[in-house]
Amino acid sequence: MPLFALVLDEKAMRTKVKKDGAAVIEQDNPDLYKNFKSTVLNKICSFVEDTKDIRLEIQRSLNRIYEDNPNAGWTPIREVGDPSKTATEMASFAKEVSELTKQNAKLEKRISELTNSPEETQTRKFLRIKNILQNTMLDYGDKQLNALWLFINNKEHFVTGIHNASAGGREMGFLFHVVGPQLEIHGLLEDYKRAGVSYRTIKTSRLGNQFLAWDIEQRLLATTKKLSQAANTSPPSAMETNPQIEASPDKRNSPHAGANLPSGEENTANSKRSLRNALKKTPTR
User: Fold this and answer.
1) What integer pLDDT is reported at residue 248 of this predicted model?
2) Which of 227, 228, 233 is nearest to 247 (CA)?
3) Which of 70, 218, 224, 227 is the most buried (most CB within 10 A)?
4) Which three-class secondary structure state does DSSP give residue 123?
5) In this predicted model, what pLDDT tens digit does every residue of 202-259 receive, in sequence order?
6) Average pLDDT of the chain?
7) How many CA atoms lie within 13 A of 118 on its CB side?
8) CB atoms within 10 A of CB 45
9) What's the predicted TM-score (pTM) here?
10) What's the rounded mean pLDDT across residues 141-160?
């Protein structure tokens, strides 16, 4: 807030002392008085001699303050408009703000529920594991196979169990000793020993089965999406125009496709041939 001061000049002070005595002058704290007077004189102030000067300097000081700080002041009622209309608009705005605040709170709650739901949390976990396994390359002879490909394409064997019996040969040893630990790190496999046998068996854990089911679902969704897009953009195929043509078997060409590796405890000879055939056409990195 702008301020101004009026200060008695020396002539007025002498006149006042002659009239009222020395008591009108500060005598107990002269230093404090000088400091205070110096502070006042550094602000907007005017020297006056009598009451006539006081009235004149007040008007001048007010005009000077107004020029230095131009303010419109109070708005006349005729320029405000209808107060009831303004109040109605303000109430409408307040109601709208309240509704938007409620909607925002609901959306934030919904986002939090979706982000922190068990399904969303598990999906993020599976995506992280999938990415790690896909980039985990394992050496088998002169080939490099990623752990995800080996797990997905041999899920039947990991679900039923693969053991470390010597009869399994090199192929089963590879799945048990090399692939198995990479999957066990993420809790996808369990390692246990059956009673009455000298060998150990690894098989998918509950989390491993959930991961495989999730992967199957993701692949089916992707396939369905591709078929839907193809149906909307491509002309009818020969099979659609001639139902007598039999559809050819599905041929997987992705880095996670190929012949299944052998199971553990049964059909060992067939398992060896299956692994050899798989390695011949397995894509490498």
Assistant:
1) 40
2) 227
3) 218
4) helix
5) 999 999 999 999 999 999 999 998 888 888 776 655 545 554 444 443 433 344 433 3
6) 77
7) 0
8) 16
9) 0.44
10) 90
Mean pLDDT of all residues in 124-150: 91
Contact 61, 7 (CB under 8 A): no
Name the more confident of 214 and 116. 214
Cα–Cα dist 45/4, whole Å: 5
Name the DSSP class of 23: G
Burial status of residue 184 (CB atoms within 10 A of its CB: 0-12, 13-18, 19 or more): middle
| Neighbouring C-alpha atoms within 13 Å toward the C-beta of 245 | 8
143 within 8 A of 233, measured Cβ to Cβ? no
pLDDT for the residue numbered 206: 92
Residue corresponding to tokens 């608009």:
89
**In contact, 165 and 272? CB cutoff 8 Å:** no
Per mean pLDDT, which range of 113-127, 131-145, 179-193 is the poorest?
113-127
Buried/exposed code over 196-217 (b: 16+ C-beta within 10 A; e: otherwise): eeeebbbbbbebbeebbebbee
Give the full edge-to-edge strand order of the sheet including 189-193.
162-163, 200-204, 189-193
Residue 56 region, left (φ>0) first, then alpha (ψ -120 to 50), else beta? alpha
Please enumerate, as own/partner, the contacts of 215-222 that have beta carbons within 8 Å and a separation of 24 or more. 215/126, 215/130, 215/152
Provide the strand spans (E) within 38-146: 45-48, 137-140, 143-146
Burial bucket for residue 149 (CB in 10 Å: 0-12, 13-18, 19+): buried
Residue 23 confidence (pLDDT): 80
